[in-house]
Amino acid sequence: MEQKVKTAVVGCGMISNIYLKNLKNLFSIIDLAAVGNRSMAAAEEKAKTYGIGRVMTIDEIAADGDIELVVNLTPAFAHYDVIKKMLLAGKHVWTEKTMAVTVDQARELTELAGERGLYLGVAPDTVLGAGLQTARRAIDTDMIGSVTSGYAVINRDQALNSEYFTFLRGNGGALPYDVGVYYVGALLSLLGPVKAIRAFGAPAPVHEPQFLYVNGAAEPWQIPGCNVLSASLEFECGALVSVLFDGNTVNASQHELTLFGTRGVLKVGDPNQFNGPVTLLYADQPACTLPFTHGYDGTNTVEQTPFDGYGHRGVGVAEMAYAIRRGRPNRCSKEYGLHCLEVLAGMEESAATGRTVEPKSRFAMKPLAPGFYSAFMGGTGRADAERSLMD
Ligand SMILES: NC(=O)c1ccc[n+]([C@@H]2O[C@H](COP(=O)([O-])OP(=O)(O)OC[C@H]3O[C@@H](n4cnc5c(N)ncnc54)[C@H](O)[C@@H]3O)[C@@H](O)[C@H]2O)c1
């Protein structure tokens, strides 16, 4: 059994609830030793709620000789500073999406981690969940032949959502970056790197604060960047995929991810979840939902909380902790995080210039070993899925 990896979480907002619960209870490789935040009151509250031994400032975490891994759950616009500080302090880092808000920043962080021999892992880690790993296995075992094309769609009212989630008003808050990244991550995990991008885009509306139910801004704001993107992606494997992210509509989400192959069609469930159902279609046959071949299906095996809908977030941290101990590459790698961001930024660039954009970065992501489960005894007990994260 490997020595546990001493871990600290930085950023104690909404998503920290599920990370802290999972990192504390689900993964024997993780020793969740400390939490830190800009405002210490929030860190103290989370430490009390989730039973974490130490509350530390960000600087104390950076300076602590025992902490090996820092999990960065601050808003996207703060990622670059936090990640850089922790890498310079010699820590391995896991970060929530997106790695940074510009490709240049993400490239710099990727190079810095590489030069220092440190791991940098990047969400979304839903790609390691039961739904997307089952879809990957269906493709890898040739169940639909060669993937020739596909489409991915998600819609929301991002301006309305930014009334409540104030961090959405800044860089990284537009729908493609905030939610589209799950679809891009899923496509990358299933099909590999993108070779070329063409896109059209539209901005978010200017949001007038006088109509707000939840107030919090005296001035109108406009979420930066394209809030609607319609793009064509050419993957290196040859698949041509249409992507539509629309943040200028309503919160009646129509999440779609469908891949067409030479022998079948695969419909993949919501990539923002760990348990999106995977449905196989063959000509003249009834549609068939595949059993999950992998663990981490979002099943909660520990006392229930209001945040359990976020499923197994944190699985990428545990997978990276095993990678650190075993000296192998981690799956949600810095190169995967950089490519996700390059694809998103490439769509914006193509929309702005009318040109084809070719991402420079490349990545590889091995699938997890199948045959392990998150829960047994009707979901009451934790099963053996952690073994699938080891190699
Ligand atoms: N809200 C969601 O549904 C959701 C889901 C998945 C992932 N995420 C991602 O997780 C991250 C955090 O999201 P959230 O919803 O928890 O945001 P949040 O605003 O609720 O929490 C962010 C926390 O980070 C702290 N913080 C801000 N700047 C900081 C800094 N420079 N140093 C240290 N702490 C700082 C804030 O005080 C706050 O406690 C984002 O990258 C987001 O994209 C959010």
Number of helices: 10
- CA-CA gap between termini: 13 Å
The number of distinct structural domains comes to: 2
Per the principal axes of the C-alpha atoms, what is the gross shape? Answer: globular
Q: Which class of secondary structure composition applies to the elements? A: alpha/beta
Instruction: Name the CATH superfamily classification of the largest domain.
Output: Dihydrodipicolinate Reductase, domain 2
Can you describe this structure?
The protein is an alpha/beta fold. The chain has two domains: 167 residues, Rossmann fold, CATH 3.40.50.720; 174 residues, 2-Layer Sandwich (Dihydrodipicolinate Reductase, domain 2). The chain has an eight-stranded mixed sheet, with helices on one face. Helix 5 packs antiparallel against helix 10 and helix 8 crosses helix 10. The protein is globular and about 55 Å long. It starts with a strand and ends in a 9-residue tail after the last strand.
